[in-house]
Here is the input.
Amino acid sequence: MNVSIIIISYNTCALLRDCLASVREKARGIDYEIFVVDNASNDGSCAMIERDYPDIHLIKNCENRGFAKANNQAIRMARGEYVLLLNSDTILENNVVGLLHDFMQAHPRAAVCGPLLLNADKTVQRSIDTHLTVKTLVLRLIREHYRDRFHRPLGDKYHPNNFDYVAKAYKVSDGWLTGAVLMIRKSVFSEVGLLDENYHFYMEDSDWGLAVSRSGWEIWFAPEAVVTHLLGSSRNALSVEKEIALKVNCLRQQRYFVRKNLGLVSYGLYRLVFSCIHAINLARRVIMAAASSPEKRPHAILKRRLGWELFLASMEFWR
Here is the structure.
């Protein structure tokens, strides 16, 4: 078996159907198997798989186990020499499975490689990032809250405006690849470890990428393989409550990443700076909610509530 393709799905039936159809259409000249790990969907995803793709290995979870745990379930069962982690909101534009497999065969020190990702409008999507530090995390948080004042990606090496994603294959010596589509040498897991299951959904790809870099294995970007990634499509149906909970959980997992990978001094600095930034942001949103017009007040109150929840999360001790 050459490649084990692993797809995690949570209420993404239509997206999953399109993803699987693209795999069946585009994958050529390669011996592969497919695992779909369903995280307790209620949208008919499992019934669709059982009806239309009876040869697929379907793993039905009774709860939403998140991205890392669900992938690890299938990785342990995979028979392929390589594992392809594939988001359900992706469409293969060419023989991605075969191209990435051949690339890994030609680069024996490569632990992982990833394709060129495109947005729905076929513009280039960012898929490489530098390894995270307290400085970069702080700058990103400031840009997130004040994005109207930061129009240029200054110092952001892998932003599409600064990096040529379509030129040629590139060895990423200082960063990691997004987990949307990753071809991984299965033998590397025994040395680097599986995905850290303390992450539910967010940061697990950056965490594992850092572990790969520290182990001395190589990370490669292979743009001859092309995938459309409908970024965020799997989250469009989230309620306001779930969206707030997701953002708070992302903050907690980011804090875990810093504590695990960057040391206690950096962790203390991170906690101090982030608490101050979230306190300032909360105060700003309280003022904006009070001063907003009647038609804009519901949205402003929602932002205020999100600011309050993020501030509380920033003040927590890691549990």
The chain has a mean pLDDT of 90. DSSP finds ten helices and twelve strands in the chain. The first helix runs from residue 13 to 26. Residues 275 and 312 are 9 Å apart (CA to CA).
